[in-house]
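Crash report, auto-generated. Payload:
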Amino acid sequence: GAGVSQSPSNKVTEKGKDVELRCDPISGHTALYWYRQSLGQGLEFLIYFQGNSAPDKSGLPSDRFSAERTGGSVSTLTIQRTQQEDSAVYLCASSLAVGTDTQYFGPGTRLTVL
Amino acid sequence: QKEVEQDPGPLSVPEGAIVSLNCTYSNSAFQYFMWYRQYSRKGPELLMYTYSSGNKEDGRFTAQVDKSSKYISLFIRDSQPSDSATYLCAMIVPSNTGKLIFGQGTTLQVKP
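Recovered output after restart:
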């Protein structure tokens, strides 16, 4: 079946602009995770969703970052007033349920902030 | 000190070699351990998933967990050029959130 998809695959934006990154999880997966992968920091957790709620937002780097999930499916990660340090690959993963189920990753969105 | 340490390499081996990849960690509460493989400009894909200490084998891949030493390993036998990728170890943070914490990743090149 279809895996996790993300769009856009690449995004180049100017400093100060807002960007929206989209994640389509595997159908039927109730858990959805966002991670960020950058050269200096490796792969780091940002936020997760159980259904439509986000119990843990502690990984978001600043209040410029927000995420939502609607209908228990698609999720959007929004970065406001982008900064150059936001340049990274943003990865989405989904799993059947929150906890120890295998997380399946999407291909990522490569964000470049000029 | 990071919670999970992994030598970033790069590691270069000839085709057919046995490859050993390793991670150390500091939190003794970790129980679930994973190895992901990531090709360039792709998302990570799960290779091996183990619980607690012990060995698990799948084809040419063997994962080992030694909780007493807080040390995990991935062995690749008869390595192939197609195994050239970055290998990431990961552990589930014991908080019932499913949050993964990753090593830095080791870049492996298998030369024909």
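Post-recovery validation: The longest strand of chain A covers residues 42-50.
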